[in-house]
Every structure is written in C-alpha cells, then in structure tokens.
UniProtKB/TrEMBL annotation:
Designated name of the protein: Alcohol dehydrogenase catalytic domain-containing protein
Domain of life according to the entry: Bacteria
GO MF annotation list: oxidoreductase activity; zinc ion binding
Cofactor (UniProt): Zn(2+)
Residue stretches making up the Enoyl reductase (ER) domain: 8-343
C-alpha cells in the first residue's frame, strides 16, 4: 500500500510501505476512505513530538470500511463503515474505566500516527477495535464524520468540559483554527451568554461567526478591551486557548475574571511563562488535557440529528495520493485560507477554499 511516512523533522513522503496485518486478536484492519491532517501532524514534522520515530505512518483521524477483524472483536465486522478515533482504548485499565482513554495504560491512548503507524494511508491497523472505532450513522457523510475523530471531541472535552462552561457564561476562544472553530460550535450546546473569538486572520474570524461566535476580535486590536467592555470590566468566565503559543496563553490568563477558568487546548512546543505573581490572588483555574474521546458517541448522535454544525470547516479536498500537497496547503493556512483538509473519496479534484 501507499502511506505518508515520517522520516525525521521536516521530512515525510507518500510512498510504498508494507500492508498492515493483524497483530492481536482485538485488532481491526480498516480501508481508509477519508482522512485529514491535524495541527499535531505539523508539530510532529517540526520535531516537537520526539516520540514519533522515523518510519512511522502519520495521521490519527479517519473514516473507512472494516476489511478484517481479530477473533475477539465483537462490535464491528468486515463491511462496516466506521469512524476511527484519534484515541485508542483498551477498555480495561484504571484510566479506561474512568473514561480517561487518552491516558490508557493497556496499549492505547494516542498511539495512531504517534507510537504506531497511523491513518494517512490506504489501510490502517486499529488496536482495541471494540473501543476505538465507532459505527457510523448512514446520514453522516465521510467529510463530516472525519471531523469527529479529533477536533470536535477535543474542542468539547478539553475546551468546554475541562473549562466547565455553564449557561450564561462569557466564553472566549483564542485561535479560530479547526479546533477553535469546533470549540465554538460545541460551546453553543452549553448555552453560554456569549462566545467571543480571537484570531489574527480575518477569514478565520468570519468562519468563527459562522460557527456560532457572537463577537470577534482581531488579536492585534485589543481583544482584552473588547472582553472587558462586554462584561462590565469583569472578564471572561472561560478562556479557551486553541493555538499553542506563549503569547496566546498569556492573553487568556489576562482575559479571565476572578474565579475564571483557562482551558488550554493548544499543543505547545516551547515553554510558557505562568504569571503567578498576578494570578495567585484571582482564584483562577487552569486546565490542560489530551482528548479522551469519551464524548464521541454523543457527538455522533448530535451530528446525525443535525445539531452539530460542521459546514465550513472543510475548505479543501484532495485524493489520497496528493497528501504532500494537502500538507502544504494546510501548513500555509494564512495564504491558502485552509481550515480543514480532507483526503479520499470519489472526488479527484481540489476544491478551492471558500469563505
């Protein structure tokens, strides 16, 4: 088969590699029909995730058809159309029993495209298939479903749930990239009074409005003052950091009200200064987290019911064999307008970015 193989920082290629085979009785082999590129994949290529060894197939989000299962797999069978979760779960260890699947100690957690070969390939081996793939409702398209492999549960769990968003809250989302937009869309489910989106790009702020933001602010034009004006000087109840940069994290801490919460979602590649000299007296809570995907079944039901807006998040589609081009378009989002790129499916042409 062909796959996108990591060869070290700054080096990867779409090339021939060995077909995956079952290595455990709980594995499934899935033919990949739709796959996407994540910001974390870009961090891997930059060298920010040293655990990824050269020779690893990248990718941790996909939709496909089960072609083979181990003898102990019970929840899916060959021919089933499934969502491959970005997180694998053994279902038996202490963390899995507490629905903290991202911290699985039984060979799961974030392993696809990280510790084992991932989904940016024609076929992928999924460990612990009973807990790591989800049968898809017929009315959820591949293009929408692949967004539920990572960005929607990440925005919802690491953003809203960790940040304890409540009805009537003021929520600020700093960073209107794919995960930030997913955080905005899923925040609507929890009935905040207002959602404010902050980004440097006008196109992303426009997308944030379409995803459900009530107000937007350019990062370079005093967003902290806008939040203060909207809240009578108090600040945000919840600030969701969805970039992974020191300056955006510090911006979030400055926009919180006393008793507020910062939910860090972004993947940070370098240290961040925590200004405890200012924060200690404000009763603030700061959370971090790797997504657990315990919310994926619920989000799938919401998507099937038309209650989870995904329109506008996918801006470009490619066939699988144009993986390198898809990476290039996604990495240059400021120039290309890319929000989420999806590869695979019957369409063979690139769809240009839309507003």
């Amino acid at each position: 088969m062909r796959a996108y193989v990591f060869h070290g920082p700054g080096e990867a290629a779409w090339e021939e590699t060995a077909d995956p085979v079952l290595s455990d009785s709980t594995d499934a082999i899935v033919r990949v029909d739709a796959v996407t590129v994540c910001g974390t994949d870009l961090h891997i290529l930059k060298g920010d995730v040293p655990e990824v060894r050269p020779g690893t197939v990248l990718g941790h989000e996909a939709v496909g058809e089960v072609v083979e299962t181990g003898r102990d797999v019970r929840s899916v069978r060959p021919g089933d159309r499934v969502l491959i979760s970005c997180i694998s779960a053994c279902g038996r260890c202490r963390y899995c029993r507490e629905a903290m699947y991202g911290q699985c100690r039984g060979g799961g957690g974030w392993v696809l495209g990280h510790l084992i070969d991932g989904t940016q390939a024609e076929y992928v081996r999924v460990p612990h298939a009973d807990f790591s793939v989800h049968p898809l409702p017929a009315n959820v398209t591949d293009q929408d479903a692949v967004l539920l492999a990572d960005i929607f549960p990440t925005g919802y769990e690491v953003g809203e749930l960790n940040g304890r968003v409540r009805p009537g809250d003021t929520v600020v989302v700093v960073g209107a990239g794919p995960v930030g937009l997913a955080a905005i869309a899923t925040a609507r489910l929890l009935a905040p009074e207002r959602i404010v989106a902050v980004d440097v790009a006008t196109a992303r702020l426009d997308a944030a409005r379409k995803a459900g933001a009530d107000a937007v602010a350019a990062a370079q034009e005093s967003p902290e003052q806008l939040v203060a004006d909207l809240t009578e000087g108090l600040g945000a109840d919840v600030a969701i950091e969805a970039v992974g940069a020191p300056e955006t994290f510090e911006m979030c801490t400055r926009m919180m009200r006393p008793g507020g919460r910062v939910a860090n979602v972004g993947v940070h590649g370098k240290p961040v200064t925590l200004h405890l000299e200012d924060l200690w007296i404000k009763n603030v809570t700061i959370t971090t987290g790797l997504v657990d995907t315990h919310s994926t079944p619920t989000l799938l039901r919401m998507a099937a019911a038309g209650r989870l807006p995904a329109a506008g998040l996918v801006t470009h589609t490619f066939p699988l064999d144009r993986m390198q081009e898809a990476y290039d378009v996604f990495a240059r989002a400021a120039d290309t307008g890319a929000r989420k790129v999806v590869l695979g499916g019957p369409r063979r042409e690139v769809v240009e970015a839309t507003a």
